[in-house]
Amino acid sequence: MAAQPKRNSERQSDSGILAKFTSSAIVSLGKQAANDAAFVSKKLLCSTGKAAWIAGTTFLILFVPLIIEMDREQQFNELELQQATLLGAPPTGPSHK
Fold first, then answer.
1. Count of domains in the chain?
2. Where are the transmembrane segments (predicted)?
3. Which of 31, 39, 55, 68 reaches 20 to 30 Å from 83, CA-CA?
4. What's the pLDDT score for residue 18?
5. In this structure, are residues 91 and 84 in contact, taking their beta carbons and an 8 Å threshold?
6. Helix, strand, coil distribution of the chain in percent, nearest 5
């Protein structure tokens, strides 16, 4: 059984209901709220990305060299302790500056 095409008057009433619905105040408020939420989300995402960039570059510039230097000093202290042990000196704890 094939679907019968709607009559002209039925099409007009359907488009009238749809037009009334899309132009209602609730729908326009919903669209405005969705646009506002998208705008805020975009701004938040951009500012979060900028903050992550600043934090990452600050970490690389300030803390990575510090970590490398602390590791180098620890290796140097272990080497001194090992040499002192080989030479027969009594082992001492790590020296503090």
1. 1
2. 51-68
3. 68
4. 74
5. yes
6. 80, 0, 20
Between the two ends of the chain, the Cα-to-Cα distance in Å is: 95
What is the residue range of 70's domain? Answer: 27-86
- Reading the block at residue 64, the tokens are 């990575």
Higher-scoring residue by pLDDT: 1, 28? 28
Is residue 66 a part of any domain in this protein?
yes
Does residue 54 lie in a domain region? Answer: yes
Find all residues with CB under 8 Å of 49, minimum gap 6, and list them: none
Side-chain half-sphere CA neighbours of 16 within 13 A: 6
- Written as one letter, the residue type at 57 is T
CB 81 within 8 A of CB 75: no
43-54 pLDDT, tens per residue?
998 899 999 999
C-alpha pair distances (Å), 87 with each of 73, 74, 93: 21, 20, 16
Element at 77 (helix H, strand E): helix 64-86
Q: Which position has the token pair 């002209």?
A: 8
